[in-house]
Predict the structure of Serine/threonine protein kinase.
Amino acid sequence: MQCCQNPQCQNPFNPDSNRFCQNCGSNQLSELFRHRYRVLKVLGAGGFGKTYLAEDVERLDDPCVIKQFAPQFTGTSTLQKATELFKQEARQLYELGENHAQIPRLIAYFEHGKSLYLVQEFIAGEDLLEELKQNPFNEEQIREILAELLPVLDFIHSRNVIHRDIKPENIIRRFPQQGLKRGDLVLIDFGGAKQITQTSLARPGTGIYTIGYAPTEQMAGRAIPASDLYGLGATCVRLLTQCLPEFDQDGQLEDLVYDATNAEWLWRERLQKKGITISHELGQILDKLLQHLPRNRYESAQEVIQDLNSIIQPNQPSSTLTVKGQGGLVNISGLGLKSFAYDLVKVGLRNNITSRQRRQAEYLPEDLGNGVILEMVFIPGGESWMGSSQIEEGRYNHESPLHRVTLSPFLIAKTPITQAQWKAVAAIPEVNQFLNPDPSRFKGANRPVENVSWHDAIEFCARLSQFTGRKYRLPSEAEWEYACRAGTSTPFHFGETIIPELANYNANYTYAYGVKGIYRQETTPVGSFQVANAFGLYDMHGLVLEWCADFWHENYNGAPSDGRVWEFGGDDTHRVLRGGSWVSYPRSCRSAYRRKSTPDGRVDVYGVRVVCSLPDEL
């Protein structure tokens, strides 16, 4: 198939045999743009040119987006100015995309014929408008959107860039792996050629905006950083209310949540009609984002982030709930759960922390005596992917096939079992075998216990159950991975890569776009990095490998879909370990990583993290 490169052509695709375009008659036909890019389809068109989906044949047919700019200006000086502005935009996009994972990378810039071209990374995913058509957004999702995008706006504003067109269609949730539905949000369409028009060249500012998302100063051609914040606020309230600006047959704007006459947002009234309530704290943030006058809004994205972080965000409802377990409905209000706060961070492809949130989870404290407390975090039940896709970097074949699992709620230790906790339980009378109270190579009461076998871990659970009256056990593989991922689908729960500032592993090696760092060559106290996953669990990547209850299986064919321990079939002479260790390469610390060992194996990288089921035992 050939593509016509005439910017005015309405249907550019032609058979290979054509010498002239069957639509416009042009002889500008080519199978490849610049002998490199194979056009697949037109994504959009406008007065500035076209946007194509293409393949980069020099990069193994990697998908990309080509933005064509075909200026129709008269006069040499005007054309030169337009070309220079377009080049400036290209340099700007290159700097942004190379330094932030949530902005598409610029792959190439070139001139061809009378047109200019940008080639950008193709973001495979679904924009928030498409998500809205499927399901309404709730408060937790709005907080997540703010937490993910505010650092992006802070980044571009710090480089004197204003996006100018924040709206649901320009926010894509990346498909991080084949078959997975959710991933990081990516901010697309920074204007580019759209802002270079005959009129914009003759005056300052720009006329780029979308009705219903832009404040008055931007519509008057004076966009400022606070204009982007307004657009983000408008996006959030429209996702909450499901009310988008529309034009009727006469071209009149219909908007159920914004009164243009009085410059007043009516989103709260709309939510009340729907019977939807949100927290007072989030409401205040949205109201301030949407103030009519810039001086009454937030001055910077950092100010919004500070207010957002001041809201303690629970990862599940109050412990007075009745939850559904395998044995039926279970009331957990009598468990005596307590709350704790923790920091949740996300890491971009280029090793930068792109967001930080203050959140809250609930846990059951087990008093083991002598001031030693075991904190068991409540994990809400749900559905998740297990395993890795064919495109995940560093994967192993025994992590296949990628499959869905549905789990009941359970409790799991906040950190790997410490040496102090191990010693306390080792003092409880024997159930089946002797337990060495001090087996670890690297000594420290708050360091993880290591050098323990699977049989040792089983005995630890048996003694703990006897002491507490609850049934403690090792996690199934499915429970461990579900707890580790905490709703994520990226290789690590904090993002696409791992950095030594957040985990203890062999940082002489890197993963994806990661960089080398300190290799500590020993264990560290649990919780040293002061960041947890979305469930409030620490040290899920690296530090020590953690025993699971399952027999070893070479793949997931026939694996239980309900999270149960897989004790049939497979190799009953080996058990499963998860999570990586202080000596592991980064690829061996991924959420999907698994390895095997004999149940009597004792190594200074083998540790343990216990779980407790909710039904009946509690």
About this structure: The first strand starts at residue 2 and ends at 4. Confidence is low (pLDDT under 50) at residues 177-181, 192-207, 316-322.
